[in-house]
Amino acid sequence: MTAGVFDSVEEAGKALAAQGYLTDQRLATMVFLLTRLEKPVLLEGPAGVGKTELAKSLAAATGRRLLRLQCYEGQDEASALYEWDYGKQLLYTQILREKIGQLVADAPDLHDAVNRIGEQESVFFSERFLAARPLLEAVRSEEPVVLLIDEIDRADEALEAVLLEMLGEYQISVPEIGTFSARERPYVILTSNNTRDLAAALKRRCLHLFLDYPSAERELDIVRSKDTGLPEALARQLVEIVRGLRELELRKSPSISETIDWARTLAVLGVDELTAPVLSDTVSVVVKYDKDVRKALEALPRLVDPNADLPETLHGHGHGHTHEAPKVSADRGSRSFGRRS
Amino acid sequence: MEASLHRFVRLLRLRDVRISVPETLDALRCAAEPGILADRAVLKEALRLALVKDHRDDAAFDEIFDAFFALVRVGPAEHGHGHGHSHDDLSDTGELESFTLSEEPGETPQQGHEHGKPSDIRDYFAPEDLAQQYNLHQEANKIDLASMTDEIVFSQDNAVSGDAGYRVQLDTDRLHGAGVPGRLSQDTGTKVDAELSIAEQDALLGWLDQAEDQAGDEDDAAKLRHRLAGVLANLPEALKKHLEALLELENTVIESRERRAAEVDTAGENERAELEDSLRRLASSLRGALTHRRRIASAGRVDPGRTMRRNMRFDGIPFSPVTVKRAEDRPRLVVLADVSLSVRATARFTLHLVHGLQNLFAQVRSFAFVDGIAETTELFADYPVDRALGLIFGGDVLDVDANSNYGTAFGEFLAEHSSAVTRRTTVLVLGDGRGNGNDPNLAAFAEISRRARETIWLTPEPRYSWGLGGCDLPAYAEYCAKVRVVRDLSGLDRVALDLVTR
């Protein structure tokens, strides 16, 4: 058995849990199959649900080295595959000028000299002068690796095509040298935030998983495992509130990492009860857009206490809109007062 | 398992899920890994990994998996419970008094394909067959398989009067699975066969003998026994025959339904692929703005720094100059689509086009307008195209039955979404330019096209009819870089080619 091959789905799940990454069955199955079939995996899903984290945990769990290729708009294949190290080649030619001079010194004519230089070409186009970028590095590596190709949807379609040879055959062709094939097949994880549809050819070469926001229990487990310092009961309540926020139509829904940030924030503040004002003050930790913040503030009182009756909701509403004319809030206040009596 | 998976994939394809052969092979390899087949949930996730490449297909996958693998036993868990898909909640209400076997299957095979709970097996029998037997009590004495009992009890009422009639009881505990046609014909058939032929028949007949003492006379009993013997001997065959006929009927229904669906779907699939091709070609002709990035190009300005660096090997003599160009950014696209009644015939195609554009390119914002304007970017992003079209034409987004008013639509767009148009943006207008005599608001359109890098108008109407009726297109055309007539796919293809080759 080579290192990092799990015997069962449960084992895969446990190994990741040991690295602090909690999986559900779907994820565990994916990891298990990834290690067994040695096929690349494409993870799609909203930002912050732990796609990148999964690759890191997998590397740690299997004891493999993690190589990361961060994709960006306008990326060319030179930064993904390899580049010829011109500077180094130049340096070597300068230093070896004399040696090269000797080589052709006794050549009878130019033709012969060119031939002699030509014979030596392979010295300069050898692996020595190849600056490996993550993809080539993953293929050439002596030790087994986990290759993370992050946010592939940001890169241009041209780069996807470059990836195909690598993903299908685990090999990279360098015209001057030949084809490198992976000694030990790397575990390849591609992530995408789903800002555009990837080419069918790429998808076909990968196992595919759509990673969504986790279930309540799993999210609670994750918050717990991150050791945020927030008491259990509060954490439970917080997870429910975040789930409520996700149901609002926000431009960017809060993800797991934001839940954890919020839990840490609240723990640092020493909060011992989740109330609407406390949450409203810290809501900017989880909601990052102005419009979203306003929506979240409106919804928070209802999320904290679903049984809040109408007048209280109005109070909370007023609280969220402190910039409103005082007359309006006074009006609302008196109305709610009137109803209670 | 191979055959099962293959069939499963076929069913998925019928539901419009794109699955290639290598993906099927992957699925087989996944299923072959140890431990995967042991658990239905694990198998489901494994197959999902290998087969489903678009989360919009998840629902279809779930549905078909649940239906399909209800037929195929997965793992020991199933055996433990006897029947995975249990119908134990259906209670036995007894009251089975008469039983009819028809030579012909019922003509209403409703449940079979979906494999939901078999709510009423009586649906499998023609109602007239059930009713023609001797009804003493109108409601009570037909066979009532609806009650899903463990037993089928039947009696011949003409031989008996009174409550303690001669009864023949068949234990058919496997009838549980009655909702699943594939298993029913095999399992139930053999089961009934075995139980009857070995011990039960004797026991039943013996019991019938005893019962003679009670009510009725000897003749009746003997007659009954005689008749029953024939029935019992033939029962397995009769049941089997009936079920086979039923299954056959069912298959033809499924097959024909599948074939019909397949025809529609493959046509749609081809068109979609063609649409995508055309759009890719079209998009390559769209230009973005220049960026600050400079790229090495075969023609352009000489870049001193890079030239020096490259010519170091020639001792600094600028032997091979390096020229650079400012790179062009990728185009940002804003699509304005008219969905009013006058272009309804082509609006569907138009919106398919918008949806395709949005899926293929990163920075596309789409708007639909009639006399108001609404952003549809998220709608198309969230829903599959058919659903999104339904929402738009259903009037959920904007009032589609109003008269189109290009003037207000452009004005509103400029007022509310002007930030969507920058010097990098290409504006694509899809519509016929018939504003129903309303103010065309050329100023607003001019402003939009001034802000945009390029404005392209695609109209479904042929050029000669622009002058007829109240068409403002000629006026708008002045502010457009290109106006093209696109009615359908082939038109789009021509335009795309035309734009690319220019």
Count of distinct strands of chain B = 10
**Shape label of chain B:** flat
Helices and strands of chain A, in order, run as HHEHEEHHHHEHEHEEEHEHHHHHHH
Class by alpha and beta content of chain B? alpha/beta
Which class do the helix and strand fractions of chain A yield?
A: alpha/beta
The dominant shape of chain A is elongated
Number of domains of chain A: 3
Q: For the record, what CATH class of the largest domain in chain B applies? A: Alpha Beta
Uncertain runs of chain A: 309-341
Q: What is the C-alpha radius of gyration of chain B, as a whole number of Å?
A: 36 Å
How many domains would you count in the coordinates of chain B?
Answer: 4
Description:
Chain A has helices at 9-18, 25-37, 51-62, 86-95, 97-105, 110-119, 121-124, 134-140, 157-169, 200-204, 216-225, 232-247, 256-268, 276-282, 290-304, 310-320, 326-340, and strands spanning 41-44, 65-70, 82-84, 130-132, 145-150, 171-174, 178-181, 187-192, 207-210. Chain A has 341 residues and is α/β, with parallel strands linked by helices. In chain A, the strands form three sheets. Chain A has a five-stranded parallel beta sheet with strand order 2-5-8-1-9, sandwiched between helices. Chain A has a two-stranded antiparallel sheet with strand order 3-4. In chain A, strands 6-7 form a two-stranded antiparallel sheet. In chain A, a hairpin with a 3-residue loop joins strand 6 and strand 7 (178-181). Chain A starts with 8 loop residues before the first helix and ends with a helix. Chain B folds into four domains: 2-80; 121-257, no CATH class; 290-328, no CATH class; 332-501, von Willebrand factor, type A domain (Rossmann fold, 3-Layer(aba) Sandwich). In chain B, 47% of the residues lie in helices and 12% in strands. Chain B is built from 16 helices and ten strands. In chain B, helix 13 (406-417) crosses helix 14 (442-451). The interface between A and B is medium-sized, with 33 and 33 residues.
